[in-house]
Amino acid sequence: MPSQQKKIIFCMAGVLSFACALGVVTALGTPLWIKATVLCKTGALLVNASRQELDKFMGEMQYGLFHGEGVRQCGLGARPFRFSFFPDLLKVIPVSIHVNVILFSAIFIVLTMVGAAFFMYNAFGKPFETLHGPLGLYLLSFISVALWLPATRYQAQGSCGCLVMILFASEVKIHHLSEKIANYKEGTYVYKTQSEKYAISIWVIFICFFVHFLNVLLIRLAGFQFPFAKSKDSETTNVAADLMY
After folding, report:
1. 240: how many CB neighbours lie within 10 A of its CB?
2. Dmax over Cα atoms in the chain, in whole Å?
3. 15-45 burial string, b = 16+ CB within 10 Å, else e?
4. Between helices 160-173 and 134-145, what is the axis angle to 10°?
5. CA-to-CA distance for 95 and 146, rounded, in angstroms?
6. What is the pTM assigned to this prediction?
7. ∠79-171-85 over CA atoms, to 5°?
8. Cβ pair 85, 93 in contact under 8 A
9. Please, what is the angle between helix 200-221 and helix 3-29, to 10°?
10. Distance (Å, rounded) from C-alpha 27 to C-alpha 45?
11. DSSP bridge partners of 82
12. Is there a contact between 199 and 178 (Cβ–Cβ < 8 Å)?
């Protein structure tokens, strides 16, 4: 492939990686990870509310990794509230999981930025053969998505983007994060989660996760072999060299 086309492909991959880094940074600071509706179970049981009357006891909330807001309703009108995870909710949330979500999000941003720099360096600079060359781009992309590389000594231990989604989903679903937030400092009423859905920020992480797969395909499209794929020519050369000696 001509060098000009390779530059264009590497520039595209670099722009995609940089856009992903900006997207994850934005997602990290916004309270748009989860949107949930909560039912005031205590109030609904006291008045024996029917299905039509449950709307008066239905509240909602949205939150991210650092803060959130919502509205509680228990038949007496809406009560808006705001909260932050640090330091307000440290006693009720699984702190280790929550901190790991933030940590892996930060690592994901750093890896994506480094990958973008490598792509731009390969497009406009004179890359070295190992770290800065195609092997370095493959390595960064594979680490970012945590692909297991068979038949090589490189084995990614975990995907930052994938771990962020898995850990956050376990925190929300297994540890009932929305209920813990809704029942924080509520001594009289008990709230139960009715519905939860992932908001835009978690889908940004999901898209950025798959962009790294796209980057791997772009590297291959530029004409570089996968690091674990050995060409037949090299194998023939090795065999000939062995026969000579």
Report:
1. 9
2. 92
3. ebbbebbebbbebbebbbbbbbbbbbbbbbe
4. 10
5. 25
6. 0.76
7. 50
8. yes
9. 170
10. 38
11. 69
12. no
Q: Burial, 137: exposed, middle or buried (Cβ in 10 Å; 0-12, 13-18, 19+)?
A: buried
- Which tokens belong to 107? 């690592």
Structure tokens at 168: 């956050």
Tokens 């060299």 belong to: 241
Where do the domains of the chain lie? 3-226
Tell which wins on pLDDT, 225 or 32: 32
Whose tokens are 């280790």? That residue is 96
Exposed/middle/buried for 227, CB within 10 Å: 0-12, 13-18, 19+?
middle
Place of tokens 């748009």: 32
Tokens of 145: 């998505």
DSSP state of 159: -
**245 SS3 class:** coil
The pLDDT tens digits for 150-176 are 222 223 333 677 888 889 999 999 999
> What average pLDDT does this structure show over 137-160?
42
The label of the residue with tokens 């771990």 reads 163
Which residues, in sequence order, are CB contacts of 198 under 8 Å at separation 6+? 33, 34
**Token digits for 105?**
């999000």
> Cα dist. 169→40, 150, 166, 244, 245 in Å?
24, 29, 5, 59, 58
199 has pLDDT over 90: yes
Q: Which two tokens stand for residue 217?
A: 């395909």
